[in-house]
Amino acid sequence: MGRPIRVEIRPSLGTHIAGASIPGRLILLDAAVFARHGEFERVLIHELFHFAWVRLSNERRRGWEQVLKRELPGKHYW
Questions:
Q1: Which of 14, 33, 35, 78 has the most CB atoms less than 10 A away?
Q2: What percent of the chain has a predicted confidence (pLDDT) above 70?
């Protein structure tokens, strides 16, 4: 377990809605994520997983990619 991850809401992040600094243990969210129901949760979970992915081996990440490809046929998020 690492140090706590700080989450900060900013009025604007320009062209981005979020960003993560893994060494800085920081997630920045654009205030616009609160405009649509469920968007805050979706974006926050996505950003939190950046901290998990760096702990996984390439083999495990590729395995997860294969799971997503089976679950989301025809979609290309990677």
A1: 33
A2: 94
